Amino acid sequence: MRIDPAELGAERIYRLMTGIVVPRPIAWVTSLSSKGVLNLAPFSAFTFVSQKPPMLAISVGRKGADYKDTAHNILDTEEYVIHIADTPLMNAVHDSSVEHPPEISEVEHLGLETLPCDLIKVRRLAAAPVAMECRFRQCLEFGEAKSRLIVGEVVMFHLRDGLVNNGKVETEALDPIARIGGPRYARLGEIVTLKTVFQTPKSKD
């Protein structure tokens, strides 16, 4: 089967790509509007781009002719929190993807408890096993759809007790959820451990 992307609109290409690039980790992002409204939204075009300093990237699309509230908030305040959600939070993650007017807080609408961050004004979700306080560093715009790739530096990690063992996160204990095509999500399933291969050390520590 051959599909020519030049013959497809943005929405059909999006459906195709989100079914191919799977599973995708989900960045569950809290951000603060200039009017003080705490916004919450999930983004599955998400990865890390640097380890020193730690930097994460999310791709934020548009809703109609305008950018999503998260992009506006991050560019306005330059602070936000990226959470990793576990299985018990799956429904809340999905429900937070509903588009509300900017004056509506998804956090309040869903009844989610928050905690203050250490270094930024944006609050973090108490129930999430991982929360990363971020400061905005760079924004790049791509394609005809003008998706914004937003890169931020993690200035503080918050991890649930028991998740880290000898400096590494216990993935089974984290139990993260992933996004696949459409309103569908996945868990990790079987984890396969292969033999360690040699890699040049990334740093002296």
Helix-strand sequence: HEEEEEEEHEHHEEEEEEHEE
DSSP helical segment count: 5
What are the low-pLDDT stretches, counting only 5+ consecutive residues below 50? none
Which overall shape is indicated by the principal axes computed on the Cα atoms?
Answer: globular
Q: Quick one: biggest sheet?
A: 7 strands, antiparallel
Mean pLDDT: 93
**Strands in their spatial order, largest beta sheet:** 3-2-8-11-12-5-4
How many beta-strand segments? 16
Strand content: 35-45%
Measured distance between first and last alpha carbons: 48 Å
Helix proportion? 10-25%
Q: What's the Cα radius of gyration?
A: 18 Å
**Structural class, judged by helices and strands?**
alpha+beta
Protein name: Flavin reductase family protein
Pfam families: Flavin_Reduct
Family: Belongs to the flavoredoxin family.
Cofactor: FMN
Overview of the structural elements:
This protein is an alpha+beta fold. The chain contains 5 helices and 16 strands. The strands form 5 sheets. It has a 7-stranded antiparallel sheet. Strands 1-15-16 form a 3-stranded antiparallel sheet, with no helix packed on it. A two-stranded antiparallel ribbon has the order 6-7. It is globular and about 45 Å long. The N and C termini lie far apart (48 Å).
